[in-house]
Design brief:
The chain is 13% helix and 27% strand. It starts with 5 loop residues before the first strand and ends with a strand. It is an alpha+beta fold. The strands form two sheets. The chain has a seven-stranded mixed beta sheet, with no helix packed on it. The chain has one domain.
Length: 147
Amino acid sequence: MAKTVYIHYGDDRFHDPRPIKNREYFTKPCGGLWASRKYGESTWKDWCFSEDFRVDTFDRSFEFTLKDDARVLELSDVDQFDNLPILSKEENGRCGPTYFLNFEELAKQYDAIEVTNIGNLYFTLYGWDCNSILIMNPDIVEVKEED
């Protein structure tokens, strides 16, 4: 089975990212490496072009896969959040709650978090905006060499 290929835009080579640190009342942590599936739906590139946001960064990118033993938490449904470590939760009426995850605790259990259905999780992780992966442990990254 072929490995999933991810792409990071804005740089043409991999650098060790800063360590994961929680940010109070923010759905994303500081640190880590962000990417999207190269051949996915609702990707970072799709979102940027639809919003005319940072489209000048797409001339630099690198591709990578994950090591076979990578521990990836795949999030696709709101029900999954009941069993995750959270810092806080904010109720948003009919939109459902927004969760502020404890990424520092999650990084002890998982190497990466991948959102695969942002349509279901838009308000739950308000600010993620697209299907993406957050690499919390850079040791799982296998940089794809140029052909």
